[in-house]
Amino acid sequence: TKDKTQQHLTPSLFFFCDTMVLVLVLGDLHIPFRTNALPQKFKQLLVPGKIQKVLCTGNLCSKETLDYLKSLANDVVCTRGEFDEAPFPETKVVQIGQFKVGLIHGHQVVPWGDLESLGTVQRELDVDVLISGSTHSFSKAVVNGKLFINPGSATGAYSAFASDVEASFALMDFQGSHIIIFLYHLIGSEVKVEKFEHALAN
Fold first, then answer.
1. Nearest Cα to Cα of residue 201 among 133, 142, 153
2. H or E segment at 54?
3. What secondary structure letter does DSSP report for 48?
4. In 10 A of CB 9, how many CB atoms?
5. Cα atoms in the Cβ-side hemisphere of radius 13 Å centred on 199
6. 134: left (phi over 0), alpha (psi -120 to 50) or beta
7. What span, in angstroms and rounded, lies between the C-alpha atoms of 75 and 111?
8. Are 167 and 156 in contact (CB under 8 A)?
9. What one-character DSSP code corresponds to residue 120?
10. How far apart (Å, rounded) are the C-alpha atoms in residues 101 and 103?
11. Longest dimension (CA), the chain
């Protein structure tokens, strides 16, 4: 049940075994301009040495934030948000196990978060999974066997559309032709976790 899943997933990452490829997916932190730091409850969950790769959609906005992500994993991949000064690429494609994963911030997609427009990006990049941000709101969709993930804002930074944003990030556990996705979101002072699964399309 969902309650059992939540109980199992908090408070740490120590339950993940060494055979998994565990990827932290996050973005739109906007530190220090819209918020001061990642929520402390999230920091307590993110244990260095357990995460193999970090995929960040962008809008880190500071070298200190990038350095923090590098303290969690040696392999950090970022794309450029419209407020990033660092020379990150506009898009990036990485191979994780059997999956080709595409990364884009998403401010280039009009309207922001539009699934049809994101589908165009997915086809151009020729990927199995497309990770995007910009909306500051978590979303998940599967279209024609392709997975679309938006991890939301890891700090709950305000957006152009909302001042009350729920902080969230995702962990993606790649296991062969399957992915298990864990969404962590901060509701009040509690971290809630949801679990999804996705299989590689034939």
1. 142
2. strand 53-56
3. T
4. 21
5. 2
6. left
7. 31
8. yes
9. H
10. 7
11. 44
Looking up tokens 């969690």 gives 72
Instruction: Identify residue 130 by its one-letter amino acid code.
Output: L
Classified as helix, coil or strand, 104 is: strand
In a structure prediction context, what are the per-residue pLDDT tens digits for the chain, which is 202 residues long?
Answer: 343 334 334 445 545 555 578 999 999 999 988 888 899 999 999 988 889 999 999 999 899 999 999 999 999 999 999 988 899 999 999 999 999 999 999 898 888 778 999 999 999 999 999 999 999 999 999 999 999 999 999 999 977 666 778 999 999 999 999 999 999 999 988 999 999 999 998 7
Looking only at the bridges linking them, the beta strands covering 178-187 and 139-143 are unpaired
Distance of CA 44 to the CA centre of its chain: 17
Q: How far is the C-alpha of 118 from the C-alpha of 78, rounded, in Å?
A: 18
Quick check: pTM over 0.70? yes
Q: Which amino acid appears at position 110 of this protein?
A: V
Which residue matches tokens 């309207």?
Answer: 111
